[in-house]
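User: Okay, second chain of the day. Same drill as before: sequence in, structure tokens out.
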Amino acid sequence: MVQKICFVTIGATASFDQLLQAVLSGEFFQALEALKYTHLLLQYGKSGKRFLEELGNTNRHGIEISGFDFNTKGLGQEMWSTKAAKDRAEGVVVSHAGSGSILDALRIRVPLIVVPNTSLLHNHQVELAEELSKQGYLVHGHVDDLPSALRDSEAHRKKLQAWPPNSHGADPSGRGLAGVMDEEMGFYD
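Assistant: Same drill. Structure tokens below.
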């Protein structure tokens, strides 16, 4: 059977219980099932394990559910697990709106749903999600309607914009984050 993975990350520094509750809701599982997802993988942070324990069952609507608190090696492996391969259909990453997680997913070029944590003080996440969505890099999701964002991401995968964008014709991607930052700051070789 071909796997299709939805990977959800809430980040490492701030809890985001609302996002965990949204992705563990019946409506979200129905949307996953309708779109032929087989696995839901959660990076649930410091306090999120209780949500999986309360769920009790690690299989809902035919979708296998698993999770972990934090990976000291980063989330690259989990994000790559959403890429299409011989035994996998392309899935999606659902992420908090932290810039590090967003950049990681954009570099891998997988469909990305970004959900800002609006409870944070001095919240810049909404502006970042709105702008990157407007430019066609991701889907801006909301905790109160994630099934719609999931459906939008299916359409978005057909027109996924490549990251990093470049404004002067050179390809900074061979230089990693330094190349992206130089490009954004206007520093050219």
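The radius of gyration is 16 Å.

User: Thanks, on to the next one.
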